[in-house]
Design a protein that fits this description.
The chain is mainly β and 187 residues long. The chain is 7% helix and 43% strand. It is built from one helix and 14 strands; from the N terminus they run H-E-E-E-E-E-E-E-E-E-E-E-E-E-E. It has a five-stranded antiparallel beta sheet with strand order 5-6-14-11-12. A hairpin with a 5-residue loop joins strand 11 and strand 12. The chain is globular, with a radius of gyration of 16 Å. The two termini are 30 Å apart.
Length: 187
């Protein structure tokens, strides 16, 4: 794995310790003890096509929680289900779940790289089941490493929002979900 990606993963573990993984999984590996209490994803390999046309591949060889401390992360190719409660105009008690069994209180995040050979943009769709428009913060990690805050747009009540980025993204963190009145896209 690229050394800058390893360094960035270590920084993420300290700042945002909750990555979600997708890709090829090793069914023989047993999850660590924390994963018996929270929903985790097993080790996986992430494949991306970079802006220069080169391929990027990184394998994360550890089990990681999907949600921790109110933050969720998602890797390309994954759909993540996050149950939550709306209290005091904020989403609280975020819990990653394997299946969307309570669609009235489950955020759905789908993150992938478009397979159009002329435009390999990254796409995120967030479905908001709540009766209020929600806003959130987002941080991305690029394949070369480094964390970058990125803008996000409000997700309308009972609807979904599509976000896109022109560059490859190795990992995306979303957190700080809150009720908003405006439709302004910002950090």
């Amino acid at each position: 794995m690229n050394q800058s990606v390893i360094a960035s993963l270590l920084v993420l573990a300290c700042l945002f310790p909750q990555p979600v993984l997708s890709g090829q999984r090793d069914p023989q590996r047993q999850p660590p003890a924390p994963c018996s209490e929270v929903y985790c994803h097993p080790p996986a390999t992430v494949h991306l096509l970079l802006e220069n046309g080169r391929e990027f591949e990184a394998t994360v060889n550890t089990h990681l929680p999907v949600v921790q401390d109110g933050r969720a992360s998602v890797f390309p190719g994954e759909i993540v289900y996050i149950e939550a409660e709306l209290k005091n105009e904020k989403l609280v008690n975020l819990t990653a779940v394997r299946n969307n069994t309570h669609p009235d209180r489950t955020l759905v995040l789908r993150f992938w790289q478009d397979n159009n050979p002329n435009n390999r943009m990254m796409l995120l769709v967030i479905r908001n089941p709540f009766p209020e428009t929600l806003k959130y913060h987002a941080v991305v990690m690029k394949p070369a490493g480094g964390l970058y805050q990125t803008s996000s747009c409000p997700v309308p009540a009972g609807s979904q929002q599509v976000e896109s980025w022109p560059q490859a993204i190795f990992q995306l963190y979303v957190f700080g979900f809150r009720v908003v009145e405006d439709n302004k896209c910002d950090y």
